[in-house]
Amino acid sequence: MSYKFQFRDVLAQQDAIFDGLLMTLQLTAGTISLGFVIGLLVASVLVYAKPWAKTMARVYVEVIRNTPLIVQLFLIFFGLPSLGLKLDVVTASLIALTVNLGAYTAEIVRAGFESIAKSQIEAGISLGLSGPQVFRHVVLIPALKNVYPSLTSQYVLMMLATSVVSQISAADLFHAGSIIQSRTFRDFEVYTVVAALYLALSLLMRGGFSVCYRLLFRRP
Amino acid sequence: MSFVELKSVVKRYGQHTVLQDVSLKVERGEIIAIIGRSGSGKSTLLRCINGLEPVQAGEVWVDGVAVHDPASDMRALRAHVGIVFQSFNLFPHLTVERNITLGPTIVKGVSKSDAAKLARDALRKVGLEEKIGAFADQLSGGQQQRVAIARSLAMAPNIMLFDEITSALDPELVGEVLLVLEAMARDGMTMLLVTHEMNFARRVAHRVVFMNQGRVWEQGPSSEFFAAPKTEELKSFLSSVLH
Amino acid sequence: MMRELSGLDLAYLILAMRWTVLLTLLALVGGSTIGLLVAAAGASRQAPLRHLARAYVGVVQGIPLLAWLFIFYFGLAILGYNLPPWVAATVGYSVYAGAFLGEIWRGALVSIPKTQWEAALSIGLNYAEQLLHVIIPQAVRVAIPPTVGFIVQLIKNTSLAAVIGFVELTREGQLTTAATFQPFAVYLIVATLYFCLCYPLTRYSRQLEGRLRVIR
Q1: Structural contact between residues B182 and B204, judged by C-beta atoms closer than 8 angstroms
Q2: Is residue A1 domain-resident?
């Protein structure tokens, strides 16, 4: 092979890498927080609301889960302006990612709610707990505990999926790759380094979620 | 040598010693009931005999084959040692017939038609001929267990091991399984049963073995065993079980 | 030079779906081959094989698909091969799918209770016979619903091949938008077409899962 790998050039571009990393982290944090809230609300509608609301929620979930994220992103960033709503790349990214994660979260949490046996709820009511108390202590918290692995897996996948915002030129870690590419012409090395950084991020996230589990759900 | 012989067998799971220096002899045609509390090692003892559990020390001999030796031909031996489990363990994706013919066709090279005949004969012995085309989930627990027995019988074993085979059954289904066992006993099959069915043990078994803390604590002919227990531990076990 | 969005554009978009389907099938073939090896290694009795499988799955799943596509696209170019985008895409998707399928199938294999292995061993079957006659037939049943679910993911993921220049449905959408300046309408159509591909499979996978639960 006549090609010489030059990773040093890539690793020297610390400013681009750092800025991109920061954006990815911010997008991920924002998406997870908002997406979780949306997902929780939609899941509650899917399980407890009137039929017409349930149908609307179901349509939302199915449409999002059966279409690609990049198309959703393009629709929001490129499509909405023709309807009069022009968004900057970061806002468009956040909206697309959040709407997407909300649907996946809703489906996972819904399964969690439905996994709580009726007998548990009956026991709670018999003990004199009020409706909201039953929901919080007998349904919500046990359900979240049960689906925690699926949910956090989805979050790590979402962090990786944020790379798609690079395609509308949002300055995330993946986009930093193309910046460095134009500076150093080291295509292969750039994306190998970027990939390694994402891998490190995903491992850190998994570890972090593990720790969170112990803090949230273990008895002291 | 006896048909089955255990010499000073020691079995450990990690730090926990389940069988401590167990020695036992079983002659051809004998029917042995093994009783004891949970954790006394009785199931493990049975599973060591057909090599499902390896032993850390001691010897296990079955029909002249050294089960404790990894080099022994266990495939040939297992064709002659039948075992029936507490949870039946039928193959859910196969019909009753295929459950039974699987062993003979693959291990013994029996032809399909001969194997089908073997299956019918085995099912006749357990009284379930009409269920030959059924699947496990279409049968009751007692029926599944009888099919499991038929599956073992089709291999023409020299000895049958039964690991608490009625413990997972609803009470009204236990009788039909015990009837099958009594018929096998009458036919002269060598049988080792780990069981809680004390009345059955008293009636059918020749000898009873009481396991406690991983040892053979007491054993004797069934006629005396229940009437006159010698050790304190057996006395207290029997009084808690036979109320 | 802008033109109106016409029925012809719709036709081209629908036709572009065949490349989406083709890429999905290629990824499935490649991914299944790798997936079988990963599943077998992951469920094997040899610890080094298990670790290798786990490492493969961990690394592939910890890196964005876009990155894999770029790595193979540029990597293969370095090796001197001047290959069209679809080759890089096929390799990238196969590696990616191999990890996910391998994990699904490994999970199915180990979900078969130990008692089934013991029952098979006790009638004299050797390891290969236990796998062939008792374990794998049951594992396949368990693996089908999540595998169909993953195929849906794969179809959606092929949209990223547009980024390395492979002309499937999403890329066709980009090209059509560039020509007609109607991004909203075009991407709405594109989304609908993906939905038509994915939703029936999603429903089917749920049906299968329901049937499986009844059997158990």
Answers
A1: yes
A2: no
Mean pLDDT of chain B: 91
Q: What is the domain-level CATH number for residue A126?
A: 1.10.3720.10
Kindly identify which residue of chain C lies nearest to residue A4, measuring between CA atoms.
C78
Residues of A in contact with C146 (CB under 8 A): none
Q: What is the per-residue pLDDT for B71?
A: 86
DSSP-based three-state secondary structure for B18: strand
CA dist B87 and B76 (Å) reads 25
Structure tokens at A77: 């960033």
Q: Is there a contact between C156 and A67 if contact means CB atoms under 8 Å apart?
A: yes
| Rounded distance between C-alpha atoms, residue B88 and residue A134, angstroms | 41
Enumerate the H helices of chain B as residue ranges.
42-49, 74-78, 96-107, 112-126, 141-153, 171-186, 198-204, 222-225, 232-241
Is the pTM here over 0.90, yes or no?
no
User: Is C136's Cβ below 8 Å from some Cβ in B?
Assistant: no
Q: Using pLDDT thresholds of 50, 70 and 90, give the confidence band for residue A82.
A: confident
In a domain, A2, yes or no: no
Angle formed at CA C160 by CA C157 and CA C165, multiple of 5 degrees = 140
pLDDT in tens, B4-25: 999 999 999 989 999 999 999 9
* Beta carbons within 8 Å of B178's beta carbon, 6+ residues apart: B166, B197, B200
Q: Say which DSSP state C44 is in.
A: S
Report CA Rg, chain B: 18
Residue B156 near chain C (CB below 8 Å): no
Closest-CA residue of chain C to A190: C71
Strand-pairing partners, residue B16, are B13
Residues of chain C with pLDDT under 50: 216
Angle (deg, nearest 10), helices C136-157 and C7-42: 140
Q: Which domains does chain C have, with CATH numbers?
A: 7-215 (1.10.3720.10)
For residue C216, the distance in angstroms to the closest alpha carbon of chain B comes to 8
* Cα distance between the two ends of chain A: 59
Residue A3 pLDDT > 70: no
Half-sphere exposure for A115 (CA within 13 Å, toward CB): 14
Q: What is the extent of the structural domain holding A44?
A: 7-217
d(CA C60, CA C55): 8
Q: Which residue does chain A place closest to C59, by CA atoms?
A: A199
Q: How many domains does chain A have?
A: 1
pLDDT on residue C208: 87
Tell me the average pLDDT across B146-168: 93
- Global ipTM: 0.90
Could you give the CA distance from residue B36 to residue B241 in angstroms, rounded to a whole number?
10
CA distances to A69, A77, B90, C66 from C157, in Å: 9, 19, 41, 9
- Please tell me if residue C128 touches chain B, with a CB cutoff of 8 Å: no
Mean residue pLDDT across chain A: 91
